[in-house]
DUF4255 domain-containing protein
Amino acid sequence: MSNALAIAHVTQALALLIENNVGPEFGEAVKVEPRKPPADPQLEQPTISVFLYQVTPNSSLRNNDLPTRAADGTLVKRPAAALDLQYLISAYGDERELVGQRLIGSVVRTLHEIPVLPKDVIEQAGERPYLAGSDLAEAAQRVRFTPTVMDVDETSKLWGMLYQTPYTLSVVYQATLVLIDGRATPVPGRPVERPEVRVLPFGAPGAPVPPAAQPQGEGPSSGVGSKELVKAETEEPAAPPAKRAAKAPAKAPAKAVAKAPARTRKAAPRTARSAQTETRKADRGDDGTEN
């Protein structure tokens, strides 16, 4: 947790971190400025600009401190704003010697090797008079730098916001996480009025009986079991399912016997009719005349 000077403190510490690591590797003095890219860059000395172009709320911790007040408006928790800082780091120098590209390479190596802002660099940056009173060095959450990928369209929009500033080779980094505390002090919670803790050994008056000490046959489970056993003995046993299965097939032949005479009666007229037809044919001759 930090105060309102945390944003400026991180910017100054980032510029100091780059200056301490890029200068000795580059072989000559490198000027690192925490400012906007210059509209008319001077090529007399290699220069790196560290420009904070955007401050965004951290998506994972933006609502971590809610709610901060009780129903009556009393402050119960100090609010803290979780922020991410977006930096544009540009390099300037003699293009004939590829100074800008060499500087960008040193910046990338430095931030990849030291992604977390060291405490000694934070303390060194806090010695500036305009950062007096900053407590970023005591913050539990350290600031981490990660590179941000930007395509040509996003890069064009970013540099389009910088009015009359020529484009130069740059990299974009995100600083996570910066927490800024509120100034109000929350109301302390009410203390416990009457703590009650009782410790009783087994067997003492008022202490619960351990399950192992309970004799068999006692308790609510034994009474229920005996009642169910007596009830099962007094009830008359039901008929076995085998007898029911034996009675079921006996009904089928009865229906078949009852229906048999009906079929015989229906078939009898058909037989009589066929006999009469044959008798009539016999009475007639071969020529179709009756005898």
Remarks:
- Strands lie at 31-33, 47-57, 80-92, 144-147, 170-181.
- Residues 219-227, 252-268 have pLDDT under 50 and may be disordered.
- The first helix runs from residue 6 to 26.
- The helical segments are 6-26, 99-113, 119-125, 152-161, 220-234, 241-247, 251-283.
